[in-house]
Amino acid sequence: MIIGRDVNSDLCLSNKNKNMSIKYTIGLDYGTDSVRSLIVNVETGEEVASAVFNYPRWQRGMYCDAPNNRFRQHPKDYLEGLEYTIVEALKQAPQGVAENVLGISVDTTGSTPITVDEKGIPLSLTPGFEENPNAMFVLWKDHTGVKEAEEINELSKKWEVDFTKFEGGIYSSEWFWAKLLHVIREDAGVFRAAYSWVEHCDWIPALLSGNTNPKTLKRSRCAAGHKAMWHEAFGGLPSEEFLVALDPLLSGLRDRLFKETYTCDVAAGKLTEEWAEKLGLSKDVVIGVGAFDAHLGAVGAEIEPYYVSKVMGTSTCDMLIAPMEEVGDKLVNGICGQVDGSIVPGMMGLEAGQSAFGDIYAWFKSILEWPLKNILAESELIDEATKQKLIEETSDKIIAKLSSAAAKIPIAESGIVALDWMNGRRTPDANQALKGAIAGLNLGSDAPRIFRALVEATAFGSKAINDRFIAEGVRIDGVIALGGVAKKSPFVMQIVADVLDMPIKVARSEQACALGTAMAAAVVAGVYSSTAEAQRKMGSGIETEYHPIPENVEKYKGLYEQYAKFGKLVEFNL
Amino acid sequence: MIIGRDVNSDLCLSNKNKNMSIKYTIGLDYGTDSVRSLIVNVETGEEVASAVFNYPRWQRGMYCDAPNNRFRQHPKDYLEGLEYTIVEALKQAPQGVAENVLGISVDTTGSTPITVDEKGIPLSLTPGFEENPNAMFVLWKDHTGVKEAEEINELSKKWEVDFTKFEGGIYSSEWFWAKLLHVIREDAGVFRAAYSWVEHCDWIPALLSGNTNPKTLKRSRCAAGHKAMWHEAFGGLPSEEFLVALDPLLSGLRDRLFKETYTCDVAAGKLTEEWAEKLGLSKDVVIGVGAFDAHLGAVGAEIEPYYVSKVMGTSTCDMLIAPMEEVGDKLVNGICGQVDGSIVPGMMGLEAGQSAFGDIYAWFKSILEWPLKNILAESELIDEATKQKLIEETSDKIIAKLSSAAAKIPIAESGIVALDWMNGRRTPDANQALKGAIAGLNLGSDAPRIFRALVEATAFGSKAINDRFIAEGVRIDGVIALGGVAKKSPFVMQIVADVLDMPIKVARSEQACALGTAMAAAVVAGVYSSTAEAQRKMGSGIETEYHPIPENVEKYKGLYEQYAKFGKLVEFNL
């Protein structure tokens, strides 16, 4: 036993020595419900440790008003998660990793802005605003600024320059200006105390690197370009005249925001002494400029020029990169934006997406669950515990069972056609007022047939996006999928491949966003000279590839025409 | 005890004596799945006894091919049911009733024709055809003659006289000529042996009264006028030229069918000795000319001029009567027919209907049941017997629970609009190719909201029929509802009343069809001089009345416009 111990000690020592020469970066990935840290070996891409932290206040539903689409997050949820996940991941990691962390980069949801004071401190971390939702982060899915978005759109169309033109031509209530304008209109106290505003993805790097001054902290090109109407051609943000015309309350704010923006290959600074101590890392750790989760997810899934990187979850985010010189001045209409370097520095980043994807399947599942949760749940035939187990067991299998039943139904057999607009339409041509629809129903339209039509509708929604890119002169060479649906539903993925008539590669990494962020950190730390190089070295490759089945492709062409026709009828007549 | 017995004996005797002076009629009601006899006191309308017989061959699915919409019934099912139900009801009835039965009338489904030999014997009761579905009754819902109906419509529009004009202008695959043409085209053996054709409602009275000769048996005006394009203005059935142009196979058949038709106040004859003996009745019992179930149901529910009698079940049959002189030569377009005396002799009978009503609720229920029957049914958490009970218990409550949840949702709150064409559209403007649709769906559209929209859609379908009558100059003074939905669903009935903006009376009788048929028998037997008089004396009155709620009426006006708009989009563009 003693010998054994010695051997182990030797091994540890040898591992430690080995680790000494290996370098790591940390990807910090702030999602909607939780934050995850991922420590990655920069040479091999090996994911050596990871930790997750669920936002405690968010989990308790604090500061939110879901029926009115108000979703706010407290900065403390982010701060606690920052410390916990990095410290915890380092604990999990082999000895010697902490000393060899070269950089940290951050991705977050967005647009998720917060108002800050002159020092860049979020108002909700200052006295008097601790419990005020208007002093907190306004989460990406907060829709309280619907009216403000409409006003922005209206004014933009009348203005000499259309400031929405690089954001697809339609401004959304989910974005920066609509949100901040709504908040300052609603809350005079916050308006008076608000010096400036920062995005979540800007604040974390600013904090870690010790420069939170709103006028000088390094702002994310990704957030600013896609959500804040920032563009080089405008000399930065929309003009003061435009903003004041929108609302005199905005007067002077532009100067307290920013002119310059930075891509995620740029360093925001180095880790402050305070944070270095808290996290158990060196002060030499480089902090990268932040970006949005989906964008760095595309990097993690090894996006290539002219490949759509499709994050497929409750909704989708469809990203495409193309060499700047090839896109040139061309405007791609009806998407969510085109920003120099927003995904991969040096490349034009184009973003699109579907407002609901997996959410539509979940919606149909919730309809089918209704008798279980509202009738069976009240039965007195069996005991409470068994009943709950039975409901859960049945519920959990619905999507899988529906998928296997739906897979057996021949294409076009049911005659059902559906529209995937149950949460409005993000792209092409954003219109949040649109709604879902199902036609071609008869008394034989059973649950699997309807489910199949819903899946086809989501695939058709994907095709509408691809078609728009192509119609606007942006070719598509392939699709790389990531996210829960891509990983878990071969049934859905095959239909999407057939409908798109395009092979779809599914990225292997389970944590593509955090991995992409770790790749960005490796570039920032100087390990690699480009994102593409980091992807080649650190990428985890492709797990599966779905190939379109020629016979199906032909059949779906006819169905897609029906979808498009039905869509036009509903959009322009109902 | 002995004293008690004596008293009882006295009572029996007194009852018997009393019964001696009371007269009865029997209504024999052939439905889709079973036949029912009802013995009714002609003075009071009291329903003294009843018996039901489920068709045994039909129950075993014999001779049918449901996926191909072939539904056939063997005459033996009808014959066995005829004998059983009358004998059994007489057994249940107090002593002395049998001797005091004055008449029997018959209602059946329709158009449900069968081919017969020269003697009027159904081919399937003759050697060599016993098991041939083409030699059996072609049930009302058999759709094998879709192509033949199309040909009839096409030829009619080209012909100098449009023989479909008194049947709403569109011939259906559910009707006489389409069915018989399909059968003789498909089956050369049947074609060679077929001398003539009779409707189910003609055959039973012919049999009971002993005259089955196809050329002289008394044919029902109701069946001939609504389904066989018979009209006085045409001199009877469509011309020989028309029929031969349709198909030379029809050559000569017209002469072996009929010229005259009779309303249900006319006697077909008296009970034959053979049947009198079998049934235990007198040879003096008068047999009435038959009619369709829904039509005599309207009589049983005490239909009045300008009242829509709405049979609300899986589908609806909407009947209206109006004085002949007030309708005159006016053609009511887009309904299922207008026939002199088809409902109440002496009155114009107008028929319309919805192809699916309760069937739409049943369809939605079956979707919600899917996880119960396909996932929970396979669970191993509980024993088989409990599982079956649990599934049944849950299933049985779905419609009621959905109704009470849906009732709490404010009108127009969900934004969902549905079309009730899941089984095509019967009226207005028959189009069996139409399908159902649902629009206005979002991720909050739960099961009760969708159910509510489906109920509203069926109510809107009812309004479309009423509106058509009115647009064609036929006023509507009120609605009398009967059938399962009318009896069982106050939630649905209130919505229909609100949407129609019209009070709805629900008939009290649980057996309105059989009761109406017994009323017809009382007229045939000479007890009453008119159907109206029989209704006054034998009617069981109104059970409930639904009054439109003014506030709701206003709200539904807007929703109906959406329904109509959506309907036009789907009908003319998809």
Give the SSE layout.
The structure is a homodimer.
Chain A: H1 2-21, E1 24-30, E2 34-41, E3 47-54, H2 56-59, E4 72-73, H3 75-92, E5 101-108, E6 113-116, E7 137-138, H4 146-158, H5 176-186, H6 188-193, E8 196-199, H7 200-209, H8 221-227, H9 240-246, E9 267-270, H10 273-279, E10 286-288, E11 291-292, H11 293-300, E12 307-312, E13 316-323, H12 324-327, E14 338-340, E15 347-354, H13 358-368, H14 370-374, H15 384-407, E16 417-419, E17 436-441, H16 447-471, E18 478-482, H17 484-488, H18 490-500, E19 504-507, H19 512-524, H20 531-538, E20 542-546, H21 550-573
Parallel strand pairs in A: 1-5, 5-10, 5-11, 12-18, 18-19
Antiparallel strand pairs in A: 1-2, 2-3, 4-7, 6-8, 9-10, 12-13, 13-15, 14-15, 16-17, 19-20
Helix pairs in contact in A: 4-5, 11-19, 13-16, 15-16, 16-18, 19-20
